[in-house]
Amino acid sequence: MNHLVLEGRSRAHDREEAGRESRSHGSYRGKEIEILLDSQEAATVLGVHPRTLQRMAQRGEIAGVQVGKLWRFRGSSLAAWIDRRSSPDALKTA
């Protein structure tokens, strides 16, 4: 499983997050469930505004799940988006 790391966070915050993350993971029907990031957390990872990220999800540019008015994003989806954007083919067209 891919884990994204946010720079500039304190070690105490990282320990707190690690504890919360381990409690948040679970399984359903034998499959591990990946914790979801809210728009603010996911936008921080990508360095964009949360509303920009939500628009990207609405356009299908990045995978996200809308729950009511709120958007949630898998860390692995963010990593896949970053990988696609930094692939040699993507760099040629930029």
Sheet with most strands: strand arrangement: 3-5-4
Strand content bin:
15-25%
Shape: globular
Question: Radius of gyration over alpha carbons?
Answer: 15 Å
Which ranges are low-confidence, i.e. pLDDT below 50, for 5 or more consecutive residues?
Answer: 5-24
* Largest sheet descriptor: 3 strands, antiparallel
Number of strands: 5
CATH architecture label? Orthogonal Bundle
Structural class: alpha+beta
**How far do the termini sit from each other?**
29 Å
Please give a structural write-up.
The chain is of the alpha+beta class. The strands form 2 sheets. Strands 3-5-4 form a 3-stranded antiparallel β-sheet. A two-stranded antiparallel ribbon has the order 1-2. It has a single domain, classed as Multidrug-efflux Transporter Regulator, Chain: A, Domain 2, CATH 1.10.1660. The protein has 5 helices and 5 strands; from the N terminus they run αβββααββαα.
